Protein: GOST seven transmembrane domain-containing protein
Amino acid sequence: MELFVVYIAGEDCEGLYNLYFHNCVDDYGSRVTLNVSLVEENLKKNYLSAGEMPLPALYFMMSVLFFMAGIFWMFILKKSKRETGVAVFKIHYLMGALVFLKSLSLFFHSINYHYIQIEGSHVEGWAMLYYVTHLLKGALLFITILLIGTGYAFVKHLLSDKDKKIFMIVIPLQVLANVAQIIIEESEEGEIVHTTWTVIFISVDLLCCCAILFPVVWSIRHLQEASQTDGKAASNLRKLKLFRHFYIIVVCYIYFTRIIVQMLLKITVPFQYEWLDDMFREMTTFIFFVLTGYKFRPAVNNPYLELAHDSDDEEMDIPMTDSGLTEGAVKRGYKAKKKTLKEIVLFDPNEDGTDDDEEVLLEKRREASHDLD
Structure:
């Protein structure tokens, strides 16, 4: 058994180091079998690298921040339901569950890194809790984005066939992406399985992120067509504007977390600042949650939650006639508009029954129609 130690004497020598073993095969084709036990330790018995030392505290603080945001969200739902009487849908509670699940995932992740920091390896129980919550959080995040993007429970109460197909494709792929990420974290960089699952994770995750944009685009197209045909242009245009904002938010979230953080920051930042990748990713996720919650919160003036008050069945006040006989009387309901023309002529006080000329009668009908318009 051979033991060798590499000691970094000063900060000018610190950096990332690699250990290589090369077997020079002779003419007889000799083979070497060996077991390597590698211990990497920083000052004060810290087994994390310089770029990972702040991660336990970072994950814990973000866990507390997400938990407080979840409490505030539940307070908003409770206040909206009891005091303002605004409709609170099941998807609102699903959004709250996602925030709490994200908080639990970060909390278990911080504990997992804490044991790695002091012992050099994680405790399987805490690691398993983190992997389970991380897997559920990843699937629930994409489910929530898909439900909001399709307008489910807000605009429509049934998913179309295209929406169901997107769910059947995206959710299993997202589960696969999360499993791939877990395998990556449990394997060493030098292993072949690490490289293979890294490619799988990046490819599948980007594919899922692109797929969840289709329901939002379909909703935008549907609202554009509806605003020109069903007579509720103002309401649909407000919803259309909100969907476009949501689309931009999702695109920015995907672009920053998948492109900027995972690819560019890891390459450009020095090794001792690798924790900035995780900080930017979690802060971006928090901002995405806050903006989504603000856009689709239960509120009276939220166009996404507006009832179809422009519908043909809505009651409205229509004057029956301008004559003194029925002054102040109103006819409720949309169907009253067609009856009013007849009633105006029948109860016209200027009509004394002596003038039966057809042209006079048609003129009175045209005047009445003009007044209603």
